# Entry
Amino acid sequence: MARVRQAGRPTREQAAQRHLELLDRALEVFLDNGFERATIEAIATAAGMAKRTIYSLYPDKSALFEAAVQRAVDRWLVPIETLRAAETDDLEETLLAIGRIRLAGITSPAGIALQRILNAEGNRFPQLFRLVYEQGTLPAMTFIAEVLTRHAEAGAIEIDDPEVAGTAFLSMVVGGPATGALWGVAWTPDDLDKRMRAFVRLFLDGVRPRRP
# Structure
């Protein structure tokens, strides 16, 4: 006879979902109060969870904070397969698609929250910048460098260092609008599209072969 589940005991899936909810509520408390003023008690109240349950998962507030930021990174990340699926033979359209995907991720609620927490607590937790760079920025830059290399080998563009060129592309096409979104600047979709097309064409003008 199958063993009857203990009454009130959550399933593994329910426990995992509650854990994610804890991390989401914890990030909100950290954002609202800052790391120093945020308390486990406040987080427990926001999550509807007992303090002892939180301490059974994380030994201290720092460990919970880092896990909450990792959760924000996981929600913000764009799978590299999504970028690869956007590649076509047309370099301009490929770069536009990559720019749109990256910008949508960075300006999403999870992306904005991540930028805010890094700006506020990055000095206290400098390893978080490395985490975001290695998990999010570096894979995207590597893929963009691969795209640029393929088109350089075909003679469509001339670049000495694909990684440097890819970094410049991201800064031009995504960096400005992302910073504006963090500061509360609201562009219409048409305005954003015009800006992105202008930046992509400006970038391409800089890497296309020069006519003698």
The chain has two domains: 12-74, 77-207. DSSP finds ten helices and no strands in the chain.
